[in-house]
TrEMBL record, chains A, B:
Domain Gfo/Idh/MocA-like oxidoreductase N-terminal: 3-111
InterPro entries the UniProt entry points to: Gfo/Idh/MocA-like_OxRdtase_N, GFO_IDH_MocA-like_dom, NAD(P)-bd_dom_sf
Gene Ontology molecular function terms on file: nucleotide binding
Full protein name: Dehydrogenase
Protein species of origin: Weissella minor
PANTHER family according to UniProt: PTHR43054, SCYLLO-INOSITOL 2-DEHYDROGENASE (NADP(+)) IOLU
Amino acid sequence: MLKLGVIGTNWISKMFVDAAEATQAYTLTSVYSRREASGREFSESAAIYTDLEAFFTSGIDVVYIASPNSLHFQQVAQAIEHDVQVIVEKSAFSNPKEFEKIYSILREHPTVHLFEAARHIHQDNFKAIEAQVADMDVISGATFVYEKYSSRFDAYLAGEEPNVLTRTFSAGALTDLGVYPIYAIVKLFGLPEDVYYFATKLANGADGRGTAILRYADFDITAQFGKMANSYQRSEILGRKDTILIDNIAELGDVTYVDADGKSVEISTTAPENPMMAEAQVFADIINDPDAHTDEYEELFMLSQRVNMVLTQLRQSAGIEFPADHA
Amino acid sequence: MLKLGVIGTNWISKMFVDAAEATQAYTLTSVYSRREASGREFSESAAIYTDLEAFFTSGIDVVYIASPNSLHFQQVAQAIEHDVQVIVEKSAFSNPKEFEKIYSILREHPTVHLFEAARHIHQDNFKAIEAQVADMDVISGATFVYEKYSSRFDAYLAGEEPNVLTRTFSAGALTDLGVYPIYAIVKLFGLPEDVYYFATKLANGADGRGTAILRYADFDITAQFGKMANSYQRSEILGRKDTILIDNIAELGDVTYVDADGKSVEISTTAPENPMMAEAQVFADIINDPDAHTDEYEELFMLSQRVNMVLTQLRQSAGIEFPADHA
């Protein structure tokens, strides 16, 4: 049983702990929170730490980090230094410079694994998409959409600076929501040859929504995402005459294949109630038997690095700088 | 009753003649076709001409031109020289140079009107979209999609060079299908500040599909169109929390407004059986009483010129040249 520590006490940490415990591979033992009360509210039984050093030396095997993006780098580095396995929410790091530094630290702690919690790519319905794509004769293009009005945008309009819409926290539409479609695209199609990001910037310089174009040798892919409007579009992968339709690239509730004759077949199965269970299981399997999963881990790690590169290139193409870029 | 001549004997000419006659403002009198037999097949009662000069001096008041795009310029010029009113299928001209020359000729024939047959923007359901857009507090972005696999792409794959996928005819996905979303966008939102076109080019250099980005001061708009794959996406205009959904930006069968609370209201009415009737009526009204419609005509003419500019800028951004650009 892996002793699990958690940084961040919001809804996504709660969901991950539920998923982790449901796999029966983890047990929550430690919670780090800036405020003791928030930690206690999060868990009645775990030990609560307001000091990060004490948290990392509390005997945990693995930490799940869901703090604001800009804090990931320092917290992940500290975890690795303590030989604690790391699961960090996406986007993992602000830029390739941070990723490189983490890589160097990992080299000195060869037993530690670093996982980016891209939950959707581990789900059965994502694997159904991968199998269908592999089975299609031609890919002509694709559109991935993840755009939903956020209550945090109400806060922005009211004059506040919510974390998820502030460059100080390495946040914005691309790194918070765009990371879902970008992860899916890079997992399915590899590194693009060229990328462009058309961002609608807020007064504070963060991106509220945007459209990214990822160019491949034979086709282009569009990703549309944002927090300041409601899109009802599906995601879609275009073959020659056939098409894959995906209701939501993050939630993956319904995936349908429409063949060349226009006949629809659902290729998805009922999505698990907790969408983080699949990734929690994958990470536990690798941690518990690393030698049997060398290739799988390597692939995930490389994917994480590629996504980090693509996100940064997109951001640069839109002229969006994070303070972390100049750290 | 306007005496109508037609150039081009394909399905779209047939549809226009049906629409024109249904308005009871036109009567078909002359058909130009390279082959007499095609002309006779098109109409049993009209006079058939295989010589363009004879066609234009046959006493017609107005000509509807649905020849390949690259032939429009010469045929329109000739029509104006004969003081024949002109309705030309979209895309009207290959580039702004052609448009300018036509404008000069029009100045010498002040009674002649030039109409581009952008049928969708004249429909009631398009006006419903315009009214809804005008009523929305904020526009955050939009996506317009018109992408359908064409049997002509089968021909291309079989080694042929179909007109609609050949630069020699100033054709391709943008000028043949993209013109629908681009027309809608420029009519609704005016001239963009900046445009980008990501085209998937065929071996012959024509665009088989593509994604265009039109940037405005406060938002970006995406247009997706093509002839080499099947998209099932709707078109969509994003407000703040509210959204307009359009089943098909060319056909405009169903337009729905989803308000900030997620409540849907259909704002479209049953589309007319013949989608070209609305434009045929508008053009006849202007021709029959020009003084009462000066502003309306001016607006349509300016819109046509703007669309011509935007299409050309998009094409240039993708490095797609037409032979007509060097004429």
